[in-house]
From TrEMBL:
<comment type="subunit">
    <text>Component of the GINS complex.</text>
</comment>
<protein>
    <recommendedName>
        <fullName>DNA replication complex GINS protein PSF2</fullName>
    </recommendedName>
</protein>
<dbReference type="GO" id="GO:0030261">
    <property type="term" value="P:chromosome condensation"/>
</dbReference>
<dbReference type="Pfam" id="PF05916">
    <property type="entry name" value="Sld5"/>
</dbReference>
<dbReference type="GO" id="GO:0000727">
    <property type="term" value="P:double-strand break repair via break-induced replication"/>
</dbReference>
<dbReference type="GO" id="GO:0006260">
    <property type="term" value="P:DNA replication"/>
</dbReference>
<feature type="domain" description="DNA replication complex GINS protein PSF2 N-terminal">
    <location>
        <begin position="3"/>
        <end position="61"/>
    </location>
</feature>
<dbReference type="GO" id="GO:0071162">
    <property type="term" value="C:CMG complex"/>
</dbReference>
<keyword id="KW-0539">Nucleus</keyword>
<dbReference type="GO" id="GO:0000811">
    <property type="term" value="C:GINS complex"/>
</dbReference>
<feature type="compositionally biased region" description="Low complexity">
    <location>
        <begin position="194"/>
        <end position="203"/>
    </location>
</feature>
<keyword id="KW-0235">DNA replication</keyword>
<comment type="similarity">
    <text>Belongs to the GINS2/PSF2 family.</text>
</comment>
<feature type="domain" description="GINS subunit">
    <location>
        <begin position="65"/>
        <end position="166"/>
    </location>
</feature>
<dbReference type="InterPro" id="IPR056784">
    <property type="entry name" value="PSF2_N"/>
</dbReference>
<feature type="region of interest" description="Disordered">
    <location>
        <begin position="181"/>
        <end position="203"/>
    </location>
</feature>
<dbReference type="InterPro" id="IPR036224">
    <property type="entry name" value="GINS_bundle-like_dom_sf"/>
</dbReference>
Length: 203
């Protein structure tokens, strides 16, 4: 999956804005949003929120999870647990990046949030790569990883074909080695029996 597709999917997330204009509902392909009333919050797709914000027609209301206290708890839990913690949004990186790049003035402690969200992503990436490494070394053929987001799965996608190919080659080599060993044992056993028979009749 192309990174732009991952971003496209993430931009469909709904987010609250406070418009500074009034308008009837907008009828989009996958549903209607609005009506818009100046000063009253309304939920719209993230891509529309960014579009309106660039035109200075609204203020974006950051999601509840985009607070330092919440993210610090998530970061600490991610560091403590060997498993992946459930993130507050399936597309947390896409949402955070677009909101903070489009409307930094609407996000309290924006730079601090940017840093801690990147920290969380890096911790999870490191944990994911460690899991893949253990999977390869353990010669596994099946793995289950819960609570990964689409972007995180996409980030390690390039190394997965190599990993699976490495495992397949190892398994083929192991199977061939076992087959050769079995054939050698069978051949060796037959030769031994023949020698004993010849020796018996010679006597």
């Amino acid at each position: 999956m192309d990174p732009t597709i991952v971003e496209f999917i993430g931009e469909k997330c709904m987010i609250s804005i406070i418009p500074n204009f009034s308008n009837e509902p907008l009828h989009l392909i996958y549903g209607s949003v609005g009506p818009f009333r100046a000063g009253f919050p309304v939920f719209v797709p993230l891509w529309l929120a960014a579009h309106l914000r660039k035109q200075q027609k609204c203020r974006i209301v950051p999601p509840e999870w985009m607070e330092m206290e919440t993210l610090e708890e998530i970061k600490e839990e991610e560091k403590r647990s060997k498993f992946f913690t459930k993130m507050p949004s399936e597309h947390y990186m896409v949402v955070a990046q677009l909101v903070m790049s489009t409307a930094p003035d609407d996000v309290p402690r924006c730079e601090e949030l940017r840093t801690i969200i990147k920290d969380i992503f890096d911790i999870r990436e490191s944990k994911l790569r460690t899991s893949i490494d253990a999977f390869i070394k353990g010669e596994g053929t099946y793995a289950k990883l819960d609570n990964l987001t689409l972007l995180e799965m996409h980030s390690v996608r390039p190394i997965l074909p190599y990993s699976l190919d490495h495992i397949a080659r190892y398994q083929r080599m192991a199977t061939a080695s076992q087959r050769d060993t079995s054939m050698m044992n069978t051949t060796g056993g037959g030769t031994g029996t023949g020698s004993m028979s010849n020796s018996f009749f010679t006597q």
